Amino acid sequence: MSGNNHHVRPTRLKTFLYGADYYPEQWDADTRKDDLRRMREAGFNCVRMGEFAWANVEPERGRYDFSLFDEQIELLGASGIRTVLGTPTAAPPAWLTTEHPEVLRVDADGHTMVHGSRQHACYSSPLFRKRAAAVVGELASHYRDNRSVIGWQIDNEYFCHFRECYCENCHLGFRRFLEARYRNIEALNSAWGTAFWSQRYSSFDQIELPMAARPTHPNPAHMLDYGLFLNAELVHFQHEQVALLRKANPDWWITHNFVLREMDFLSLTDDLDFAGFDYYPMFEEPANRAARGAAALDKVRSFSGNFLVPELQSGPGGQGDFRHDEPDPGQMRLFAYHAVARGADGILHFRFRTARSGAEQSWAGIIGPDNRPGARFEESCREGGEFARLGPLILGTSLSPETGILLDYGMTELSHRPITLGLPSPVRCGEIIHRTFYEAGYSVGYVNPQDSFASFKLLVLPCWPIVGQDLLERLTNYVQLGGTLLVTARSGIKDEHGNLLGETPPGPLASLSGVRVAYAARVNNAEYAPNEFALGPEDEARRARTPASMIPRVPQSMWIECLAPLGDDADVLGRWTEPPVAGQPACTLNRVGVGKVIYVGTFPDERNLKPLLYPLAGEASLVPLVSHPTRGIEVSVRSGEAGRFIFVLNHTPNELLQRGLPGGELLIGRHGGNVRQTGAGAMELSLPGYDVAVIRVDPAS
Predict the structure, then answer these.
(1) Does residue 24 have a pLDDT over 90?
(2) Which of 277, 374, 535, 630 is most buried as measured by Cβ atoms within 10 A of its Cβ?
(3) Which of 360, 475, 453, 437 is nearest to 400 (CA)?
(4) Is the pTM of this model over 0.90?
(5) C-alpha distances in angstroms, 669 versus 42, 294, 398?
(6) pLDDT tens, position by position, 233-276
């Protein structure tokens, strides 16, 4: 897998997809005809349907009725609108759960789920998977020759409402998983360290599912394996459906609409043609919306490359006890361009028509419950016209950021969960680092740990607990060939079972980073602890000539490490300034081959990354996307044979000016007084609030 480049992989889509999610089973025939007219007006070329329609297509066990969807697909196809079908397994019908309650999932308190919501069946249930395979197989066979059906979405939003399940199917499945993983019970006892608290097992049949506070803390290795089991069950559940669809029609593309939860994204997306990601920016507060959204989109791209957005927020969401703010005029279009700027090759708004009943009746669609097209519909028409022009140009282009942050929602994140010590997880540390580079105007993204690192100038290992031999070898190769690696505290401290290593941190990273951790401490009361380290020259004469005001001070965050450099190639970049560790190394640089490794002995946060940012950028020769980034404006670049496409997005309600943009053809944006050429092949651009612009730069220039 080391040669893969998932993060720069384009989709296999031949057309940029634009449309919405549609639920014909919820509307009468006259309404559906009116919807078709409006979809044509909005410039749709695609809709997604069927992901919650199991009870419609199989109203009784073994009796199938596809007439409603046959009619709708034909009408859409005659208007040039293709269909993406969803396998309907996220909402099993009442006849199944009534006849076979053993398919239902059970929570940690022993409560069995009931019919009346969704995702109430367990992926580990053999009977549920048998019935799921039956309906998917019938759908695949029925539509295999229908040219209007272009692709499929498997299920819907894995782990959205639950992850853990404690049903009898999971008990039995977990034991089978452990037996396959360890072969014999003594191997499990050794891996789990069951000598602790008299936990030793003599049979796999003795092992229960781990539960918190029953009565106290469970074994971390036990919890880690349970998380891996849940991931493996999900991978198998998906693959069974993928295999049926590929057998029926190899030309179909297949995706899933992911949400960001702990799961094995790499295995899941490797089984798909590309990932889908459901993007709902209004869940974030306005001050965090752009940065958190960019990070989420970049995460998906790290495992899939370019992706589809099967659900993009089109209006305020409302469910249970919350209701989002109403998006301002232009924000719906801005959200669409934000996704495209960071790798989306298709946008489907959720949803075309607001539901009048059910749990999502307050979740606004493009058309409201009063059936009157308003501002959101007008905005969707504008998007449709623009994407019809822009889409063919950007298909095949991808992003290639200079800074890559390692990301793993699987074993790495799961190993943190049992014992957090109140410290942020590797994913959260990566988000903090991403935001700092993003807001400073640098090109930043994520990379999965099995991918190639060669394209990155700076690679970040954010408080990464488990470093296996394969990852270590590829990190070493990356640095030796000229890369710059940033390692942060508590990295390389655990084995693959989540147990602490019997060697001094950073364990397997010690030789590469050129340091060992001589002292480490959790900071619970900052007023009684060392608060910062000073960056500066080690040479005493140079240090004496440097004014104190010119020496960057880097605050600690929740954790301090004093470092012991190994060998002559490790330089001290910063030292703690206060007792009891005053003068001890806090930050080091080690030269390996023609590259370097920087180790920072604390956790990243917004305060300490800002003084570190420019020294890091200098060491890695990073260059901002524009020379003087404007706060509130995001610049992103997609490149390919058709040229470089510069996306400029104003995430604020106010008109803003962005200078230093490369000169080129303005594809999207006003052509009036808001554009000015400034010489030397550059331009400046004035963007109204929530507006976007796209500039194409010829690849030869």
Answers:
(1) yes
(2) 277
(3) 453
(4) yes
(5) 19, 21, 21
(6) 999 999 999 999 999 999 999 999 999 999 999 999 999 999 99
User: Are residues 459 and 466 in contact, defined by beta-carbon separation less than 8 angstroms?
Assistant: no
**One of 51, 157, 383, 532 is an active-site residue; which one?**
157
DSSP string, 252-293: -EEE-EE--SSS-HHHHHHTSSS-EE-B-GGGS-HHHHHHHH
Catalytic site residue from 262, 311, 379, 561? 311
- Paired residues of 494 in beta bridges: 466, 500
CATH among 3.20.20.80, 3.90.550.10, 3.90.120.10, 3.50.50.60 for 16-163+236-394: 3.20.20.80
157 catalytic per annotation: yes
Q: Is domain 633-697 classified as CATH 2.40.37.10?
A: no
Q: Which two tokens stand for residue 501?
A: 């290593």
- Rounded distance, CA 246 to CA 240, Å? 10
For 403-620, which CATH superfamily applies?
Class I glutamine amidotransferase (GATase) domain (3.40.50.880)
- Rounded Cα distance, 684 and 673, in Å: 11
Judge contact between 683 and 696, C-beta under 8 A: no
Query: Which residues are CB-contacts of 115 (< 8 A; sequence separation ≥ 6)?
Result: 94, 97, 98
Active site residue 402: no
With CA atoms as reference, report the closest residue to 408 among 389, 429, 387.
Answer: 429
Task: Tell me the domain boundaries of the chain.
Answer: 16-163+236-394, 403-620, 633-697
